Amino acid sequence: MSVCPIRAWAAVLACGMVLLAGAALAVDPAEEEAAYVKRFTDKFPKVESPPALEAYASPGRFDALFLGPSLEKNLKDVQNDSAAIAWSLSYYMRALNDMHRATGDVKYLEANLRFVRAVAAATDHKRGKQLFTGRVVKAWGCEKYAERGRAVFAVHTGIITAQLLDFLLLAGGVSAFNESLGAEHGSLLQVCLDALAVHDRQWREGPESGAGYYLGMDQENSLENKPIPANRQSAMGWALWLAWKRTGDTVYRDRALAIGRYLRNRFIHAPDGAVYWPYQLSDQPVTAEQPRESIHGEDSSHAGLTLTLPLLLAQEDQVFTRDDLAQFAKMVLNGPARRSDGILLTSITGEAALEPSYIGYPINYLPLAGIEPEIGKRITGYYLNYRPNPQPLDLAGLIRFVRHK
Fold it and tell me: DSSP of 239-282, one letter per residue?
């Protein structure tokens, strides 16, 4: 499960304080990293005899682990009150979509349809849940994070609807399966579009030409009327792009591209040839090059989500180029995957101040293995050596981006 947004923001601030304190006290970086490695290996003991990738990440193992009792368990009490859909079930749905892509087997779409139906039935409107403002929205509210009570978060809407829309796009490519959905396909699509529309009032153009972003409204006090963090912008952009692919409505396309430009203009170029960014982006575009050591990088978990829209747009030759992909790849190798022993770091700039749980889903970086194969080797080493019990998305990502390449 991803690290929750408000915990991440507090941890990022705490990390900054730690780094400043470390500078004042002249903490030896080698000692800090050694302490982190101990925390890492305490949390993830090294596997004595690591398996081969073919045994670890196979469709048969995925099916045995995640198409039986695990799937049934996750169908119970589907709701987002504690962000379970956003930060857990959506990843399961994404894994099933990826398994269909990797294998072409429709059984993964058939399994995912059960999740899709349950998630579509769990909006606040259908459950009769009210936000702290009194609104009842056609999206998935959450009772965590916002000081004033139940709120609806753009990042949750983005990451959830992205999986629903991706499912519908994949279903459209399998005629017999899509025909079996009949009118349900359209009703599921409407659930996605209604959820995205909940956040229309948060949309702003600019501040520079061609860019756009979402403001925080009626959620955490600290983000009221301020641009939401990069990973949240990217989640919405991801869903908007897929909404355009499914509907042809250029409003969705144009907003996704505007978010892409907003992000690209605020990523920071460093002398090492990589780009980095903090959890909360600058209000204005960043034009000056900065050394990696001076940048307080976003935690590895949320940064993987931040990269989702740029990687998606790059595949479509929009906003982001192959040169951008090379810079992202260099960031991964100089930051979270800068070690070659399978131990991953918790910041995109390679700091070791956060706890190992902030590694999150390094699977999000695997599309860059096509640009730099060493990324695939190092992330695979993390799973084979330290994560004997993977989550669905872990296996699906390894099967799709490493094993089948």
Answer: HHHHHHHHH--HHHHHHHHHHHHHHHTTSEE-TTS-EE--SS--
Supply the range of the domain harboring residue 238.
5-403
Cα 269 → chain centroid: 22
Instruction: Identify the helix (H) or strand (E) that includes residue 212.
Output: strand 212-214
> 200: buried, middle or exposed (CB in 10 Å: 19+, 13-18, 0-12)?
exposed
pLDDT tens across 240-251, in order?
999 999 999 999
Helix residue ranges per DSSP H, 104-183: 107-120, 124-127, 154-172, 175-181
The label of the residue with tokens 């087997």 reads: 105
Task: Give the phi and the psi of residue 366 in degrees, each rounded to 5.
Answer: -65, -30
Spatial separation of the C-alpha atoms in residues 237 and 232, rounded to whole Å: 9
Tell which residue, 214, 230, 360, 206, has the closest CA to residue 282: 230
- Cβ contact 165:241 at 8 Å: no
pLDDT for 6:
47
User: How many structural domains does the chain have?
Assistant: 1
d(CA 76, CA 114): 11
Residues in contact with 300: Cβ distance below 8 Å, sequence separation at least 6, in sequence order: 335, 336, 344, 345, 346, 347, 348, 358, 359, 360, 362
- Give the C-alpha separation, 256 to 233, whole Å: 9
Instruction: Write the burial class of residue 359 (CB in 10 Å: 0-12 exposed, 13-18 middle, 19+ buried).
Output: buried
For residue 127, CA distances in Å to 116, 117, 175, 192 come to 16, 14, 32, 16
Residue with tokens 């396909």: 185
- Is residue 122 predicted with pLDDT exceeding 60? yes
CATH number of the domain to which 341 belongs: 1.50.10.20
For residue range 282-312, list pLDDT tens digits in order.
Answer: 999 999 999 999 999 999 999 999 999 999 9
Contact 138, 124 (CB under 8 A): yes
Instruction: List, in sequence order, every residue forming a beta bridge with 216; answer none if it has no partner.
Output: 224
Q: pLDDT tens-digit profile of 307-334?
A: 999 999 999 999 999 999 999 999 999 9
pTM > 0.85: yes
The number of residues in the chain equals 405
User: What 3-state DSSP class applies to 148?
Assistant: coil
Structure tokens at 145: 């994070």
DSSP 26: T
Q: How far is CA 197 from CA 7, 60, 99, 161, 203, in A?
A: 27, 40, 30, 11, 10
